[in-house]
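Input:
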Amino acid sequence: MQNITIYIDDKKLEVESGKTILEVCRNNNIEILTMCHLEGVLDVGACRLCLVEIEGVNKLLSACTTKVAANMVIRTSTERIKRYQRITTELLFAERNHMCSVCVANGKCELQNLGYKVEMDSIRYPRLFPQCEVDTSHSWYVLDHNRCIMCTRCVRVCSEVEGAFNWSVKNRGYQVRIISDFNTPWGESTTCTSCGKCLHACPTGALWPKAIVQGQLDKKPEIIEELMAKRKMGL
Amino acid sequence: MDSSNKKTIYISPVTRIEGHAKISIQLDENGEVYDALFHVNEFRGFEKFCQDRMYTEMPTITPRICGICPTSHSLASVKACEMIQGIQPTYTANLLRRLMHISQNLSSHALSFFHLSSPDFLLGYDSDPAKRNILGIAQEFPDIALRGIRLRKFGQEISERITGKKIHIMGIVPGGMAFPLTEENRKYLLEYIPEAIATVQLGINMIKSFHEKNKEMVESFATSPTLYLGTVGPDGGHELYDGKLRFINEEGIILQDQIDPSRYLEFIAERSVSWSYLKYPYYKPYGFEKGVYRVGPLARLNVATRMKTPLAQKEFEEFKKIGGGKPVHGTFYYHYTRLIEALGDVEIAEQILNDSEVTSSHIQHHGRWNYAEGIGSSEAPRGTLFHHYKTDETGKLVNVNLLIATGQNNPSMNRSVLEVAKQYVKGSNIEEGMLNRVESTIRCYDPCLSCSTHAIGNMPMEIEIFDSKGKTVKRVVRN
Ligand code: SF4
Ligand code: SF4
Ligand code: FES
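Output:
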């Protein structure tokens, strides 16, 4: 792989071509907010939190899906980016029903942490308060659509890592929903192996084990990356 | 009587109780009190919006009903969950839960007595309303105010030392507890005990000397007899965390004893009334009219045969003398009983903290959904509390019934308000001291209405007198 020169936040960097802006930033300790990105599975650019400014490009591009190119001038923390991060976060909260204080993920939630990170002290958009289902049909796990942010990390982990292809997505816009199998209750799935990887991959309190209550949630999204690394090594 | 001649006095909001309420006093054409109503306007809909969620979320959701008695809700809730799972908590978990419960009871009783009620005792009912609050106490009796605050702090400290949170606790989970108590924290809490005992005893002396000086008022203050419900141990001993139900009648005769809380519906029925969102529960065998019962500290001490610890037992014996072998009906004695309980709480906390198993790490049994229905109860500071869940075979809640303490006291609160109003309010002439006594009646019960606001002292009060046609004939605003 050939080395190229790029500039991030006025810093000159020699990096390998073929990498994404996100990879380069993470390798160089430059902070980029992400939500749908999960180490170990492919990126889809769904959440729009990792937006960066690139000189000569009018619109903001997602760092997780944009590859570096020679002489690229990238900015990661301009006022414009911060404004968009805050808007995006507020919209994530406004779209479904997030009641952190009574949520099983309270204190251990990536979305909640994001809220703190972007200093979200209020939500300026009207909340949609949709009527969402709580799927309790699986013997061990719960899917609560009230807290799903449609990052599709579960979908990708289930297909790319477990190979079960249980999860997919239905509808569009605000009616979009995660579905199990052919839009049937999770407990009736013929593809789900009950491996529990989607629970670890899920950044919020949307997927959780029935056996625990608030304060006991222990999600380890990093096991997905470890698993994939081992697999690449043929272990 | 011709209703067109009646006038209604509204006292709203009731200051220094947690939540919002309105009292209306209706006068007849002679200016005599005809009727009194205590309105409760808050409705938070917990029973409805918990439906369709997992039953295991209830111990997290229901403590949010009340900022003062979250632990009682948590306990009733995990017990209902344990019934659904068919499991019991570990020995150590039971100890820690008792500590958590004591923690809440102490902070709540300290708040009720030192912060909210002591201004009436120390500064007098007719003193300047702007000063008749904890700040006024801090000015006149700084030592007492400080001790009260520290007692409340001790209560909160117990919970924080166990779970890391002062209020809205996490950590009480089906099957036990999520966090153990460390040796360091155990020692730290033990050091607080002597001071806490001294403070509660100070409170007891305060209330007793008030009783002596105001004998006539105390003994005539909302004394109408009711039935009582409380939790007792196997030997009839006073119990807060776990036990069986006992009902006694006005004479102190035991009507029901050692009833498992899961049978509550056999003995308690509820009726909705038009003027209040709170339901009106009553002792089922006696019907709506005759079945008015009370819960809370006064009820618990009335039903109990003994206290479990020596200092509290001594005080309990003095309390029992007031009734001469019969239940004590005087609503004013809620304060005294609250303090006797607090004394017992501190003594039990000491015993638990000295139990060699209290720091064990064996704190949780694990279970899963086994039975469709679960019922749990616990004694909240204000009285017996029931949580009743029905689930489908996946654990999803299909029905939730919460019977809260304030709801059960509601019928007798109304009755007490009427009694006091009849005694003290004459005509539409509003005198500060008089109306404050009506408020005080309510405050005896220490009701938590929606429990989110703590008005202290000089909260503005608006009093309106309406004639029968709804026209305001007098309006007084107190700032
Ligand atoms: S999923 Fe996260 S953000 Fe949503 S309610 Fe739960 S803790 Fe809050
Ligand atoms: S269930 Fe969780 S992992 Fe799946 S899309 Fe929703 S938030 Fe993402
Ligand atoms: S992390 Fe890049 S779009 Fe979500």
